[in-house]
Amino acid sequence: MRFLEIGFAARNLSRHGLRTLTTLAIMVVSVMVIQLVGGFYQAMFQGIERDLIRQEGHLWIKKKENGPFLGVAQAQRLKDSGVFSDWVYRRDLSGILGTEEKSGIFTGVVLDVEAEAVFRSFGEIEKKGYRIQTGPLLAQNLGIQPGAILSGFALDQGFSLSVDRIESTVSTDLDRFYQEIPLSGFSWEVDFSSLHLHVNTGVSLDDAKVILESLYPGQDYNWYDYKDSQSYFTAVKGIYSSNFQFILIVICLSVLFSIANSLVMSFLERKKEIGTIRSFGAPGAHLQRLIFWECLFLSLSAFGVGTVLASVLGMAVNQSGGWYLDPPPTVKDGIRLFYTWDLASISISGIIIAAVTLITGQAIGLSTHKEPIINQLSS
Questions:
Q1: CA distance 373 to 271
Q2: Above 90 in pLDDT, residue 195?
Q3: Any residues with CB less than 8 A from the CB of 236 and at least 6 apart, and which?
Q4: Helix axes 17-56, 2-15, angle to 10 degrees
Q5: pTM, full prediction
Q6: Confidence of residue 263 (pLDDT cuts 50, 70, 90)
Q7: Where along the chain do its domains lie?
Q8: CA atoms of 151 and 160, how far apart (whole Å)
Q9: Are 314 and 339 in contact (CB under 8 A)?
């Protein structure tokens, strides 16, 4: 009996071709929208996380105001631990710099250029040389272009550097003062105020912190984890997660009403057919199961087709260079979104489509055998 009902359900869907295709199209678009939105958001989170780790590391340690500076003597112990893939030391500083004609105050950081090139490659085979950066408003005030030579004074000694690039920083205020100084620009040894580390794949951050605890005790240093509740990544992800949840709720409500309305209209147009089946003595349970199988076929077909189309469209966007999104707070550049498979969004799309379709179908089934047959046959 069940196989016979399945056959009848399949025949009903094929017989009402245009009506079925219209309902199916609405469901397919709904699946695509949910999966695409979820996939783009997931890719954005991954991109922000990867970029932050590339620049700042998984963990970083900064000396407290009265804490000792970070010497490089501990580097061998970091290497011997086998926990960290690479690390860099940096020194926050401020001073005066300029040309023969103009000068100004600056705040910035001392970098080991070669170490930064390795660190910021973060697993890339080709390690591009790191280029020293100057803030654009600072460059404008000094009247310089890339290639200009700057000299300055900081850490009780002079330095000289060649301007490699002029780019915006994370804020307009920093643009007015920001300057990176190569470590080689100083004649004397420089003590460092921060240490940034990449953790080897498969090593947890907690295990890495155990190694660091003996080297950099908490009374002298502040510890930072890119996943900390107060971290930049957590703050940005929280903002966009809230946006995503709101968008997802709106989409789901739209999907619910669109699919429910399409199914109701579809079955209302078949009232005479349903009345004819009932007039031959078909019990209500039979109609209920028949509608159930039709709705199940529709939901499974929509999920399969929608998933394939979402993947194809997502890959097309990736091939075209991504979808541009305005930057999050304090970030200078916009984000290029790329599509990625997001299991959560795929699962949500399937659950919503199946739930809305089957529940609506069952509600329709319950109402069909309560209406007098004569009314259905005369409709």
A1: 9
A2: yes
A3: 48, 328, 329
A4: 90
A5: 0.73
A6: confident
A7: 2-53+234-377, 59-225
A8: 4
A9: yes
